[in-house]
Amino acid sequence: MKKRSYERPTLNEIGSFETITKGASCPGNADATFPVGTPSSQFTCFS
Question: At 18, phi and psi to the nearest 5?
Answer without folding.
Answer: -65, -45
